[in-house]
Specification:
The chain is about 25% helix and about 15% strand. The chain has a six-stranded antiparallel sheet with strand order 1-4-5-6-7-8. Strands 23, 24, 26, 30, 31 and 32 form a six-stranded antiparallel sheet that branches. A four-stranded mixed sheet has the order 21-22-29-25. Helix 11 packs across helix 30 and helix 23 runs antiparallel to helix 25.
């Protein structure tokens, strides 16, 4: 930009100034460098045009058909085509924009004595090149004379291409430079029409003339793919009135009219601002690991779990899960239909992750502890939760290996299909739907399918690659937001093709249940493949309809606990040598809540007996918080899309009535966490092994990494939302130091709940004046094994011999019982469930008898499908726990038998009154004063949590071999928990603080 032009620009301002001020401003203009125009860093001395016509001609046909080749092969050809500027071939009919043009305003601000420019365009400044097909479509369907436009525009023809070259901001920097002499230093956004490949019919992508490579094979950080079908570009382009493009002839060279213009305060020279879209395409921060793992195996784990002698994989040999880059399944062309009932979360991410437009940052809040934003969006809070990572959970897959190799090898296929029906639900469901449509039979979804990838083409797993991608996506968006619960939905959808084989699954898992209870173990029906259920009334439907062919629809059930209860009530068969003995409840989180003071009294089909509890709160109230720490409701738009009123002006977009989103009260985070910090730490430290990215794909370096946010949510829940612990009544009595410890539950279900191997325990310490431990119950070693004063594991901590050759205590069931008084250091109060497998020493022909009240005679088991008898269940009950008759009435209303009410009953807690109405546990520690080698100054009680106790991990390593077991051994052996709240493999929840011991308490020593 010339100084003369700048003078003309400021002439109206100068004319209103007089005397010295005007001279001063003129002097600034004359000063030169301080107010020089931005440099055009994209300019090149010679035109960048195709020089190899034969190469361009050989690539043209393939480039026009993106769906005909695997992604890596197509991207290679497209890369060669663009790298050689074949799209700038005017002789072949390609036409470009008139000039480099801004797509939003460029504003100046004075910061620390320097001018700083901010660009707010939907893209970086652009020059679009249009293929001949695209040119003709625009002339016919968007003519310069708008009155001549057809009322119903024709679809863009296949093979049409637009290449949106992007340059440094602002556009004025390159004003006057021939666009042919400009290198697109910000890359190019690509659109290639292929209506047979996807619902929206476009191949989307970003290409860079430097720093770009085909997406397959993925890079080391498992990045979001730069190209493909169903890309996040739709979060903006779905706001176009038709054709998914805002293109206008006014922009095109040789056509009448002028492009839109925006404010451009470019009177100074400054580096071009970083464009957010480029950060998404090429993140500046690799953020590979969020924490440093241990390079070698942890000696505490190897010795503490007695696995020192087992073969151990190395960093080079450990099996890595497929890259998240592969996990993309979009709505098929002609859909949505049953074949597109389930799609991967990347199809939702573009709109429901914060920062995806680069302009609006709804669904975020400032981080009070740093400069980055906290991402509260549905996608970001979900995908790093245990539900988002369920399809990559190394603990689950090691469990599955034990089930199929040791516990139930006769039923391996059935077990894999059953278990992956929750942990890999999208893949298992879609596979079943598709295969039933092909064969009329229900087929098993196998563990190997979850590893299937599309690259390289023709690999043995490629045929199952879409199902593998869906399975690895975990408990994903279309699982919950298509869920159809209740009698009305059952009547409407039970015979729909998208529910093929659900009746068979229900009959196998819940044979005697009816109604809602028929859906236990994730056996729910789903609704239409063109509908997404949400919690807000009057949603804007156009953007989602255009992007996915889905219509958002208000559905009250999605805010009810039953939406969680269908999966968090796990009813399974007890298998014995391939035969079903009976059915038991492996997990009862939802019924525990339904029988507590937290119940809302609402079922999917109406009121439940007994009505609401004293303190009603749904599952979502705790696990999907819609209020901040001060109780203030979150307010936000629920999506990030190109709106009409809040974005730079665009041609050919929908009106504000269709795409301007309201701010919603009660915006709920999809946090969905319990206390499994151990799994989250694995994801942070081993993203390369789990195949995941750690940086948010849309907010990128502007935001706190979601895995860190998930961990903090768990820590907050552990310390403030789960329990309290207190020590009272410290006194001496008959030579003992006595103290009463009270644990108060703050959860709406048992503590702990979920899978039966979770446990919590109390460490009670007697301390001297210097804080040294004189006596302790519940102390651990570095592997989290509870040990006595000599460092020896207490009874029940480990089940196997050191070499896994057999059970350490064959024929017996050593464990820590429920205590009301603890008086020795080899006793520990552990809140847990322990179960046994069917006995193996019965006379020939005699079948085992299993059930809640059956005497345990088999061995301890961690098998989910071998639960024959209960040994112990002293997990702390929630407040207001109902009596058996009331529980039976609610169970009946849910469609379950009395066994549901009975199976939640505590086991082996004696006459402890705390296990009647629930709400907590109180016990006494009677410490013999003679055992103290010093003077007690204080006592302290701490409540710890273990998501994977030592016996459970040891059982994994001793009951299976192969990639999944070895992976867990490697992760556990290298996980670095030093200095964290989970140090020594135990998560600290709460403690009492040091409670002084009165002088009188020492008198009896």
């Amino acid at each position: 930009m010339s100084q003369a032009f700048l003078s003309r620009l400021l002439a109206p301002v100068l004319s209103r100034l007089s005397g010295a001020p005007a001279l001063v401003l003129c002097g600034l203009l004359a000063a030169g460098p301080a107010l020089a125009a931005p440099a055009c860093t994209a300019a090149r001395p010679t035109p960048l045009v195709p020089t190899d016509g034969a190469l361009c001609a050989s690539l043209a046909e393939a480039v026009r058909k993106p769906g005909a080749l695997p992604l890596d092969q197509y991207e290679t050809k497209l890369g060669d085509y663009l790298r050689n500027f074949c799209h700038r071939d005017t002789a072949a009919g390609w036409v470009r924009d008139k000039r480099v043009r801004d797509t939003g305003p460029y504003t100046a601000s004075l910061q620390d004595g320097k001018w700083v420019g901010t660009y707010a365009g939907t893209h970086a400044p652009v020059v679009i090149w249009y293929s001949p097909e695209m040119v003709e479509w625009l002339k016919v369907n968007r003519p310069s004379d708008e009155a001549a436009a057809p009322a119903d525009p024709a679809p863009v023809p296949d093979g049409a291409i637009m290449v949106k070259e992007m340059f440094p901001a602002p556009a004025a920097a390159c004003d006057g430079v021939d666009p042919l002499n400009l290198l697109p230093t910000s890359g190019a956004a690509i659109m290639v029409r292929d209506a047979q490949a996807s619902h929206d019919g476009w191949f989307w992508g970003w290409f860079g003339w430097s720093g770009w490579a085909p997406d397959w094979p993925p890079g080391p950080t498992n990045p979001l793919a730069n190209m493909g079908f169903g890309q996040y570009c739709l979060n903006c382009h779905a706001s176009a009135k038709d054709g998914y493009t805002f293109a206008s002839l006014k922009n095109m060279l040789g056509q009448p009219g002028e492009p839109l213009v925006f404010l451009s305060q470019h009177f100074f020279e400054a580096p071009a601002p970083e464009i957010h879209h480029r950060l998404v395409s090429l993140p500046t921060d690799d953020a590979a690991r969020l924490g440093q793992p241990q390079y070698g195996y942890d000696a505490d784990i190897a010795s503490g779990l007695k696995v020192a002698g087992l073969p151990k994989p190395t960093w080079e040999t450990v099996s890595k899960m497929p890259s998240q880059t592969y996990d993309s399944v979009w709505v098929k062309a002609g859909g949505p239909g049953a074949a597109s009932e389930f799609i991967t979360s990347d199809q939702c991410m573009g709109c429901h992750d914060a920062g995806s437009t680069g302009l609006q940052f709804d669904m975020t809040r400032p981080n009070p502890h740093g400069a980055k934003l906290l991402n509260l969006s549905p996608y970001a809070t979900w995908w790093t939760s245990p539900m988002g990572l369920a399809g990559r959970d190394p603990i689950f897959f090691a469990q599955l290996a034990s089930e199929t190799q040791t516990f139930h090898p006769e039923s391996a296929d059935l077990v894999e299909n059953t278990c992956l029906g929750c942990h890999g639900i999208l893949g298992q469901r879609q596979f079943t739907v598709d295969k039933f449509a092909e064969t009329g039979k229900c087929q098993d979804f196998l563990r190997s399918f979850a590893n299937a990838v599309p690259f390289p083409a023709g690999n043995p797993t490629a045929g199952h690659a879409p199902y593998g991608a869906l399975a690895r996506d975990g408990v994903s968006c279309t699982a919950c937001h298509r869920m159809a619960l209740g009698a009305e939905a059952t009547a409407q959808f039970k015979d729909a093709p998208q529910n093929a084989c659900i009746a068979e699954r229900q009959a196998f898992l819940n044979p005697d249940n009816t109604g809602f209870a028929r859906t236990f173990t994730g056996s729910f029906l789903v609704g239409r493949p063109d509908t997404i259920f949400g919690p807000f009334k009057d949603p804007k439907v156009k953007p989602m309809e255009q992007a996915l062919g889905n219509r958002p629809e208000y559905h009250a059930a999605i805010t009810n606990s039953e939406t969680c209860g269908t999966c968090h009530t796990v009813h399974l068969p007890v298998l014995d040598k391939g035969k079903v003995l009976t059915h038991v409840y492996e997990q009862t989180t939802y019924p525990e809540w339904a029988f507590s003071a937290y119940r809302t009294g609402e079922g999917v089909d109406g009121k439940l007996p007994g009505g609401p509890g004293a303190t009603p709160a749904s599952c979502q109230d705790c696990h999907m918080p819609s209020k901040d720490e001060n109780g203030k409701p979150y307010r936000s738009k629920i999506a990030s899309i190109q709106e009409y009123s809040n974005f730079p002006q665009a041609e050919n977009n929908l009106g504000p009535e269709d795409i301007d989103l309201p701010v919603r009260d009660g915006f709920a985070q999809h946090t969905l966490v319990g206390l499994n910090v151990f799994f989250t730490k694995m994801a942070q430290q081993f993203p390369d092994i789990l195949g995941i990215r750690t940086q948010d794909p849309m907010l990128v370096s502007k935001g706190v990494d979601p895995l860190l946010r998930t961990e903090q949510a768990m820590l907050d829940q552990a310390s403030g939302g789960t329990a309290a612990i207190a020590v009272t009544g410290v006194e001496t009595d008959g030579g003992n130091l006595r103290a009463t410890v009270a644990v108060t539950s703050r959860t709406g279900h048992k503590l702990p709940s979920g899978v039966g191997f979770r446990r919590a325990f109390i460490e009670f310490d007697v301390l001297d004046a210097n804080g040294n431990v004189l006596w302790a119950s519940g102390r651990t070693n570095g592997a989290g094994v509870i040990v006595d004063e000599a460092g020896k594991p207490v009874a029940g901590e480990l089940w196997w011999n050191d070499d896994c050759s057999g059970r350490a205590n064959a024929g017996s069931l050593p464990h820590q019982p429920h205590y009301q008084v603890v008086s020795r250091q080899d006793q520990a109060q552990i809140y847990q469930e322990l179960v046994t497998a069917p006995p193996t020493d019965l006379p020939a022909g005699q079948a085992p008898v299993c059930g809640h009240d059956v005497k345990p005679t088999g061995d301890f088991t961690t098998s989910f499908l071998s639960i024959c008898a209960d040994v112990k269940d002293n997990r702390i009950l929630p407040h207001g726990f109902l009596g058996l008759d009331q529980r039976r009435a609610i169970a009946k209303a849910l469609g379950a038998g009395p066994d549901l009410a009975e199976d939640v009953t505590p086991t082996a807690v004696g006459d402890d009154p705390d296990y009647r109405d629930g709400g907590g546990d109180t016990l006494v520690y009677a410490v013999p004063l003679a055992d103290l080698k010093g003077t007690a100054a204080s006592v302290k009680a701490t409540l710890y949590y273990q998501a994977t106790p030592p016996y459970y991990l040891q059982d994994r390593f001793c009951t299976a071999k192969g990639a999944d077991t070895d992976r867990l051994l490697f992760l556990a052996g290298h996980l670095n928990l030093d200095g964290t709240e989970a140090q020594d493999w135990k998560l600290k929840m709460v403690d009492s603080g040091a409670v002084p011991v009165a002088a009188a308490a020492q008198a009896g020593k």
